[in-house]
């Protein structure tokens, strides 16, 4: 097999972008989710409505924002609303199709931790915390999660449950009356995991080109279920790669202007 | 009616040791100049409230001003950790920091309840998360009409709220626009308030439905040009993303942080001098 002309991170962003339906309203977290959402908007999903928790609705930034409230997000938005309005009317009001989150840790039912590594009161690593994620995870109609694959991130037990996925699996999410249907895919730098329709346990359903199912299992901190048929995703198209690289280059230039 | 004051006078008059204080601004219009003045005046034992403690709270915590932090997301957006916040939580340096941790939806609801004069706010939130296990200020109630399980949080009622805005007129009416975050609610929820502004103008010319804080709900208005740096003021200057990245290196170790603090904040008389000292440091670096 020839050496790939793209990185695993690029493949992850492109695979995540492909999952975004044109026209969907999308609540976007900063970092990997923001890159994927903007790539989708600049390729196959131009009508995607990007919403950032700073209050910007229908924003079209030319570079990836460093923060959730960069000026360009407000300048290019259809509307800018206050933060209480964003979380009350738009998110809790059930207006948003798709929430897009990152995570430090994830478990087999796609519950996520962005709060602490270690004990809460004496953490070994204090992470930023919840932000908008708990209500994004429960109130959006559907949730995508993207993070890099490793045993440190894909853990048997979360140190802290920050945002709800499928809780203890099965129908536990419905029994708790969480409004949205929860995570429908986890996109990593190795492949894509989707919840089993009955048990809701994350199952490896596709891998990126050149990645084996064994490698994904090795990098997961629990005995990962593997679908009977694991699809290999199409490599990045020339257009996807070009648009992503141009976006990253514009972003790099914009964020390194002299202090 | 708001009084138009110099920033150091306003902090002196309105911020006391032991106060619960909210410096708000959601990535935009963060009141950095006011935060620096609180550090210069060596306020202590503050309870700091803020949805997104970023660099300004990292500086206040590292400088030893804070006893407690009430927050929902504490990081350097797009860059990484707040090392001074982490050092306080993980190692108790420079002093132990009590934390009360929420999600954004809960914080926004608590401010709105405070502005409404209600004892608590209600939201469809915190479902399934571990946060209520560690925060006694998150409780669940049953909707009296449908039986739905909803979260309740007590209202935020800061002793002082500090925000930055684009403009005020000479009577102290304040106008802000762009990403306006939770500033209006935070000011209306507080017992006292300070608003720093880019400029004081003869006429505000606020379009209908603008975010205006009328003079009679504001305590002090202080003109501080560029007072939100390194965050931004829409229509005035962009976010200085490069400084946010640079903060990662400055704040990572106690020694480099303390040197920076002594030179650029404690060693300068006001925000103008602070910015000048930063420029000189960059020039001769």
Short descriptors:
heterodimer; A: 259 residues; alpha/beta; Glutaconate Coenzyme A-transferase; 8 helices; globular; B: 285 residues; 2 domains; 3-stranded antiparallel beta sheet; 10 helices
Which structural class do you get from the secondary structure elements of chain A?
alpha/beta
Oligomer: heterodimer
Provide the structure class of chain B.
alpha/beta
* Shape, principal axes of CA atoms of chain A: globular
Taking the sheet with the most strands of chain B, its summary is: 10 strands, mixed
**Order of strands across the main sheet of chain A:** 4-3-2-1-5-10-11-12-13-14
Fraction of residues in H or I helices of chain A? 25-40%
User: For the record, what is the CATH homologous superfamily label of the largest domain in chain B?
Assistant: Glutaconate Coenzyme A-transferase
Report on the architecture of this protein.
The complex is a heterodimer of chains A (259) and B (285). The longest helix of chain A is centred in the C-terminal third of the chain and has 18 residues, at 238-255. Chain A is α/β, with parallel strands linked by helices and 259 residues long. In chain A, helix 1 packs across helix 2. Chain A has a single domain, classed as Glutaconate Coenzyme A-transferase (3-Layer(aba) Sandwich). Chain A has helices at residues 8-18, 32-42, 71-75, 83-92, 133-139, 172-175, 213-218, 238-255; strands spanning 25-28, 49-52, 56-57, 79-80, 98-101, 105-106, 112-113, 116-118, 123-126, 142-146, 183-187, 191-195, 202-207, 225-232. Chain B is an alpha/beta fold. Chain B folds into two domains: 3-101 and 157-200 and 215-283, 3-Layer(aba) Sandwich (Glutaconate Coenzyme A-transferase); 104-154, no CATH class. Chain B has ten helices and 13 strands. In chain B, 54% of the residues are buried. The model of chain B has no long low-confidence stretch (mean pLDDT 96). At the A-B interface, helix 3, helix 4, strand 9 and helix 5 of A face helix 4, helix 5 and helix 8 of B.
């Amino acid at each position: 097999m020839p050496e790939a002309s793209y990185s695993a991170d690029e493949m992850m962003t492109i695979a995540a972008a492909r999952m975004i339906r044109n026209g969907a309203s999308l609540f976007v977290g900063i970092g990997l989710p923001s890159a994927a959402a903007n790539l989708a908007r600049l390729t196959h999903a131009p009508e995607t409505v990007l919403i950032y928790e700073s209050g910007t609705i229908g924003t079209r930034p030319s570079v990836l924002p460093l923060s959730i409230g960069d000026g360009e997000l407000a300048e290019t938005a259809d509307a800018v609303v206050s933060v209480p309005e964003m979380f009350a009317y738009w998110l809790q009001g059930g207006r948003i199709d798709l929430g897009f989150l990152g995570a430090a840790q994830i478990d087999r039912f796609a519950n996520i931790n962005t709060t602490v590594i270690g004990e809460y009161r004496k953490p070994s690593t204090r992470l930023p915390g919840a932000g908008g994620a708990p209500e994004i995870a429960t109130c959006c109609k559907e949730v995508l999660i993207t993070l890099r694959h490793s045993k440190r991130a894909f853990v048997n037990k979360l140190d802290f449950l920050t945002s709800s996925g499928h809780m203890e699996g099965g129908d536990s999410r419905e029994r708790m009356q969480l409004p949205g249907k929860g995570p429908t895919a986890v996109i990593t730098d190795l492949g894509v995991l989707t919840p089993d329709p009955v048990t809701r346990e994350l199952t490896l359903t596709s891998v990126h080109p050149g990645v084996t199912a064994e490698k994904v299992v090795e990098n997961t901190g629990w005995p990962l279920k593997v679908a009977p048929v694991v699809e290999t995703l199409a490599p990045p198209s020339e257009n996807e790669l070009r648009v992503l690289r141009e976006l990253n280059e514009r972003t790099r230039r914009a964020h390194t202007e002299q202090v | 009616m708001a009084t138009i004051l110099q920033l150091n006078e306003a902090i002196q008059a309105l911020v006391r040791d032991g106060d619960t204080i909210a410096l708000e601004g959601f990535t935009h219009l963060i009141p950095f100049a006011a935060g620096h003045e609180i550090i210069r005046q060596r306020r202590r034992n503050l309870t700091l409230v803020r949805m997104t403690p970023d660099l300004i709270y990292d500086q206040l915590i590292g400088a030893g001003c804070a006893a407690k932090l009430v927050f929902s997301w504490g990081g350097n957006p797009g860059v990484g950790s707040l090392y001074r916040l982490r050092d306080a939580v993980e190692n108790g340096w420079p002093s132990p920091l009590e934390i009360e941790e929420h999600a954004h939806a809960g914080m926004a609801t608590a401010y709105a309840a405070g502005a409404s004069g209600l004892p608590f706010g209600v939201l469809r939130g915190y479902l399934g998360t571990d946060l209520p296990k560690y925060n006694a200020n998150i409780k669940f109630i049953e909707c009296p009409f449908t039986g739905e399980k909803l979260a309740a949080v007590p209202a935020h009622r800061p002793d002082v709220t500090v925000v930055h805005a684009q403009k005020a007129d000479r009577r102290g009416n304040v106008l802000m626009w762009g990403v306006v975050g939770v500033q209006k609610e935070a000011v209306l929820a507080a017992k006292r308030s300070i608003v720093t502004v880019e400029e004081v103008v003869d006429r505000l010319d606020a379009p209908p439905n603008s975010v205006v804080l009328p003079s009679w709900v504001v305590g002090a208005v202080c003109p501080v040009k560029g007072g939100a740096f390194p965050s931004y003021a829409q229509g005035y200057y962009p976010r200085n993303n490069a400084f946010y990245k640079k903060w990662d290196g400055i704040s990572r170790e106690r020694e480099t942080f303390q040197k920076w603090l002594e030179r650029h904040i404690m060693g300068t008389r006001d925000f103008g001098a602070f910015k000048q000292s930063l420029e000189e440091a960059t020039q001769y670096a």
